[in-house]
């Protein structure tokens, strides 16, 4: 029952007539106005099947951008340009030209009079997708496992450099939602880990790096996109609606929106909405989420775009705060039909969409373009996501397209392989290492098992967007991938490094093998997942088929090796947790290494660790439970329902370690667990109060001014076809055949709650990222880390907050709020790290006050736990007296 966008692409390409006949309301309505009217209120439809209590109230109008100090210059430049734009130019920038109607995954129209080209929007979060001569970086989950903010930034910067080099204006990453609520969720690996603070730091450091290169970063997917299956509407809208993620207000703020706040605080230029509904309201036109939370509470100044083909209404989405429709098509692509484009021209001319809303959309887009300096020597796209050939159709979806030079094969790799290797190596997480089995000597007799150690025999890029699990798993599948320029397979690196390596590439243990004394078996296993448009080995994006069990009978392979060899090392490439119980306690399974998804440097980054050139310093970005059933059933994949799949987040704030702690369930390996070849001590811990606690943040300042434009409806002639215009069929234009006939008398039923008077400034807002006081440092904690072992290594310090025991808010027992990693410490070397606790870190979202409240207590302290996993908390400081101590019993098992 899964229908994905790519299925529709194929369907409509092959059977365009059928596609039209199946959806008469869409096809017959050339201007799409009927659709708008029909679905304009879709956000506000009451659907009985969304459980009671999960609401999404209307929030209108859209707060205009431009009032935040750090964007003032860019808005001033944008305002000057937008004031002189025609209606056609404005509409052009808001609407994609259509799927396969340009070189990139998404392409806007242009405003060439002002030097603004068709903007190129291109995946992915781990490299420039669907091109050549690029770098395939480690996935987000690997980056999260480094717990190294500097590396997160370095990877982001290199990603941005490559995007810029290819002429990408808007990079479609980083992914910070899904957060990983569901261990089986298909796209968790694109993000940084199952914790809002880890996602927040991972996302914001990536954004800062990307945007320092001049590319506009896009955080996605806002919000509640925690499972892949049933993520999209099946067109026509209303037949079967996209899954509804039913999330309560507090959970939304403290868990799912938290990293998006960080992203906005970091100055992100674009946000992509997700396919799913939240509380029964489609996210592409959810006024509460876009107008209310993103743009008012969080003070977002950039542009909001849809996910691909997620738009379900024209006026409704415009009023709800959407700024850019991607890839521009209506629900059914490739027909030349749109909700915006020409239809946005109509609805502005007839007064349905206020001109000031369109002006705000365009100003946000142009301001983001200036904010990243794209007016200065920014390259045009020099690649095509549609073909690898040098020349090809300029507009592949057109009935007749001219031919262009589409690929210039620009090499953008620079020295980024070093960044890849550093991140992959530092992400490698050593879970178990009995008898100091690791590191290995290069003279050891190594017997290597499993197809995951080698490259796909059909070619490293043989499967479209990595939609197969053949050979070493170095990224998941779907749009969040990039082509490998090369893939350094583990077996090749092992053979380069060690003298005595024998490889058995089958996933079935070879019969008749005899182990010699001293032989060491290294067994490679994996677990894959990805995006819903591909089904891989019966997994529909999510790991619905495999569960958390290693693929290709990996457990049996480990067990068989363990029966034969006295020393077994298991290397796991995985998108997320797998259950390791079938073999973890077998006596010969001495070492377990999670190498996550390493990208192109899968080989050397691994041997760097296996042979001790570097000590491992990665930490688990999620917990590994003993059994999947240790988590609540609400985080399982939700199955088919006829009209709309309901996914109710009834576990609230309690995902991953927060849930396990609440239920006193010990995991097999805790969130943050990761061993080293050396040992560290922590000493001289201090806690310094920086800002006095108060329960409410200081009042915010009023918003600054925003650009003011003429309110006169522009002349209809501004969207007439230019004389002699060469029309490309199915391309989405802003032009109308007879614009003068548009009258303003068409009645339009606005959504319930629609208003044009601005809402009062929300108390929790005030700047990018919300009330600036939320980012005030309340406490600094310093701790000295000393390498007490015999080899060099890096240590990570994590800070978890425990709320006062008399807090009236039910809150997870501990929550990660900050982390820092040392540089490489030689034996006896030491470094003092500073970790910070900000006001938001001590706050809960009070749903009545609609503000962040610190549960300040006169008698009970906040406790700041310091350790290197959620289950290894060795030091604690108290807020009230500032005292720090070791040896205190942690509050969690
Ligand atoms: C994905 C997005 C991606 C877009 C463009 C969608 O299917 O959900 O993450 O950026 O396609 O490729």
Automatic annotation (TrEMBL):
Fibronectin type III-like domain mapped to chain residues: 795-870
The keyword Glycoprotein appears for this protein: yes
UniProt region (Disordered), positions on chain: 747-771
SUPFAM superfamilies: (Trans)glycosidases, Beta-D-glucan exohydrolase, C-terminal domain
Catalytic activities: Hydrolysis of terminal, non-reducing beta-D-glucosyl residues with release of beta-D-glucose
PROSITE patterns named in the record: GLYCOSYL_HYDROL_F3
Pathway as given in its UniProt record: Glycan metabolism; cellulose degradation
Superkingdom field: Eukaryota
Signal peptide limits: 1-19
Gene3D superfamilies for the chain: Glycoside hydrolase family 3 C-terminal domain (3.40.50.1700), Glycoside hydrolase, family 3, N-terminal domain (3.20.20.300), Immunoglobulins (2.60.40.10)
EC code(s) of this entry: 3.2.1.21
Any coiled-coil regions, as ranges: none
GO biological process, one term: cellulose catabolic process
GO molecular function, one term: beta-glucosidase activity
Top enzyme category: hydrolase
Similarity remark: Belongs to the glycosyl hydrolase 3 family.
Name of protein: beta-glucosidase
Organism per entry: Lachnellula cervina
